[in-house]
Every structure is written in structure tokens, then in C-alpha cells.
Amino acid sequence: MEEVETRISSLEDDAGSQQVIREALEKQLEDTQWKLTDLEDRLRRNNLRVLGIPEGIEGSDKHRFMVALFKEAFLDIQQWDWDREIQKAHWFPFNRAGLSSAGASDPILDAWCHWGIKNIGDMHRKSGCKSFMELQSQYGLPTTHFFKFLQVRNFFGCHKHDMPEMTRIPLVEAINRGEKIGMIYTLLVDLQSDDMVHQNERWSKRFGKAGDWMGQSLAMADTTLLSANLKTQHYKTLVDLYYTPVKLKKWGKSSGLCNRCGEKEAEILHMFYVCPMLRVLLCEIEVFLKKITGCNVQLSAMLVLLGVMDSTEGIEPPLYEIRLFLFVAMAIFRLCIATD
């Protein structure tokens, strides 16, 4: 009888220890699953990162909040099934140095479907974007936030040897860490007067020469006879282009070695991506010049000859060459006026 009691006691002790081990393993499994999900979310190329939203304002349903936000921001695209387009919305618990400040809220990542068919460029071209002031009034966005505007950013791949030297995050450091490089562009921006001063300072440092870069750009946009609203949207999407290191998911099957550097980089697109409004500006300039001269002026062909733009379809000039593009357009415009 004593032996049976001893065995029962031993089994109970073993069962208790096994319970502790099982609970620990369940906790480890839960943590591992969370990490895998987080990594998957970060690497998904269909992610949009939305900055400037205070934590907690989205309530318990982040997906519903983001659907409502995009419906308000893009009023003219009601035919989209937003609930199906946005798969999932979640906080991105990581702020890179240089992209945030102390006390700034984490961004929200939105996973999208059918990205190749319906992209953020189409959304911008086809819709009337609400201003930050309107969104701020509706959602209570803070004016003192580090970014001072709501930014919707999309990641695009490009080869590391195509990157300019000037970047917010040291490019050499990013390459040494083995990170692939992506480009980010701002979609919704609210430029205040202090932002204009700050932007001129940034551009002066970037181009190595002081000047009213913002005023010049807006003046050039004026010459294309763009409406004030379109001109402002163009500049808002243009000024805040910059590069940052991001981790990208592999894109398609292997396509061999790069013909420029010999590296096997099939997962990185060999292209630059510039805001869609740049195409609108180019078309507006061509139409305006045709009205004056009576002949077709293909600025894109000129830019290829000048080496500003690659002739390969889909490759467009990066930010530091857009300034040259605008000056060329301005020079052509003045030449047409002088010969008229």
C-alpha cells in the first residue's frame, strides 16, 4: 500500500512538472507565432505604412478604422471594395532612427490585395485627396506630431548601385548591414509656412547651394497652367521623396545576374519610382508647348538624350534629377515664348 501511495505521489509530481513544461512551451510557441506573423507582415510587399496616427485612436478594430480613413481620404473611388482590398491593419512596433522622434506614435501597416492591379498611384490620380487639415479635424490628429502631416508610404525596390549618396539613413551603413534598399514617397502632406522654410534648407543642403527651391518649383509648375489644386498636389508628392533601407520580400523567379554589377539580385527591381503626379506635370507641359508651337514636343525623349531619364520603360528619374528636369522644361518654355 505504501509503495502504491509512493508511486501515485511520484506521478502527481511528474504531472505537475509536465504541466509547467507544457505551459512554458505554449508560451514559447505563442511568442514564435507572433514573431513569424510580425516578420511576414514586415516583409509583405503589399504593405502601406501610415504615419501620424495617435495610438489608441483606432479603437479595437484597426481594419475598420483604416477602411474608414481611406474612404474619407479618397472620396472618388467608392467602387473599390475596401473591406476586401485591405486584408489586415496592425501597429508596426518599430521606429527607425531618423524617421521618428521621441514620443512619436508607431506607424500602422496595412496589408493590401491585388497590388499590381490597384496601386497607390492609381488612387492618387483618380481621387480627390482630402487635406491633412480635414483629416485632422475628423480624426483628431495632433498638430505637434513630429511629421506634422499624415503620410501614406509605399515601398518599391531598386538596385543598391542605383542609389544616390545622399540619404536620411547612411546608405553605406545600410549596405553593410546587408539590407536591400527601397524608396518611399509621401502621398498626403500638409505644408505649413515653417515646413516651406525647412524644405528650402533641406534642398539647399542637398544641392549644395542656397535658394528658394520650393518657390522656384512652384513657379515652374505655374508655367504649365496647372490649376492651383493640381499644382499643390504635384509639389506635395514631389518634395518629400527620399531613400531608406527596407527589407523586401523576394520578387518572382530568378532572372540571372545583373548586367551592371554581375550580382544575382533577382529579388530587387532595377528601377526608380517617382510620384505619379510627375507624369501629369510632363503631359501638361507637352500639351502647353503644343498649343504655343503647334508641334508635338516629347520631353521624355529629350530627357533620355540628356541622360536624365532612362529609355527603359518603367524607369524614371530620382529626386536629385527631377530638379534638372524642371529646369529643362522651364528653359524650353522660355525659348518658345521668345520665338513666338
UniProtKB/TrEMBL annotation:
Organism placement in taxonomy: Eukaryota, Metazoa, Chordata, Craniata, Vertebrata
Name of the protein this chain belongs to: Reverse transcriptase zinc-binding domain-containing protein
InterPro entries, A to Z: Transposase_22
Gene3D superfamilies: L1 transposable element, RRM domain (3.30.70.1820)
PANTHER family assigned: L1 TRANSPOSABLE ELEMENT-RELATED
